[in-house]
Amino acid sequence: MKIYITRHSLTAWNEEKRLQGWKDSPLTKQGKEDALKLGEYMKTIHIDQVYSSPLLRAKSTARLIFKNENIIEDSRLKEMNFGDYEGEYIQDLKKKHDYFCLWHQPQLSFSLPNGETYEEVVFRLNDFILEKYNEDPQQTIFITIHGMLFTILHGIFLDLPVERLNEVNQEIVRGCSLSLFEFDGKKHKIDFIGKDCFLTPLKAKISYK
């Protein structure tokens, strides 16, 4: 099974550098333009089914990429729930010890106050992947997800334990860039990550650390 992946496009809270999680903000003008550019690129690639997180920023991105396609929303693709810290400015959160631990000392049982644990997110992501593989191991799917969710998925496909996710969370994958992962029922494979040749060059890397 092939899995094409994109992170939702640029949002108002991305520009304001605020933590989103299950809370939401709309796509910006640039965000909409980037999604349309990815849509043009995807016209040459066969996709059997498109799935999206049900959060507005993700499903809005998916609808701009695949204008006339059926898009299935799946709650297992939602961003990690960051609990009480959602909506806060990243710069302020960096002063908090538990936010530091989220990125620098990840643990299976760790969560921000009233948020999800890493273990809960890993479980729902693995559940989604295995379900889709069992439905049709030869299919090619596309998923529209989120930054931390992509980091965790990246770790799963590198067979990393959660405790080593700090090795792959230095940067957040760019919104509307394209990645390709594969799963054969046992082994995980990463073909490429963050392809963005069809987007305007990015001036700065994206980090929440």
From TrEMBL:
<dbReference type="Pfam" id="PF00300">
    <property type="entry name" value="His_Phos_1"/>
</dbReference>
<dbReference type="InterPro" id="IPR050275">
    <property type="entry name" value="PGM_Phosphatase"/>
</dbReference>
<feature type="active site" description="Proton donor/acceptor">
    <location>
        <position position="79"/>
    </location>
</feature>
<protein>
    <submittedName>
        <fullName>Histidine phosphatase family protein</fullName>
    </submittedName>
</protein>
<dbReference type="InterPro" id="IPR029033">
    <property type="entry name" value="His_PPase_superfam"/>
</dbReference>
<dbReference type="GO" id="GO:0016791">
    <property type="term" value="F:phosphatase activity"/>
</dbReference>
<dbReference type="GO" id="GO:0005737">
    <property type="term" value="C:cytoplasm"/>
</dbReference>
<feature type="active site" description="Tele-phosphohistidine intermediate">
    <location>
        <position position="8"/>
    </location>
</feature>
<feature type="binding site">
    <location>
        <begin position="7"/>
        <end position="14"/>
    </location>
    <ligand>
        <name>substrate</name>
    </ligand>
</feature>
<feature type="binding site">
    <location>
        <position position="57"/>
    </location>
    <ligand>
        <name>substrate</name>
    </ligand>
</feature>
<dbReference type="InterPro" id="IPR013078">
    <property type="entry name" value="His_Pase_superF_clade-1"/>
</dbReference>
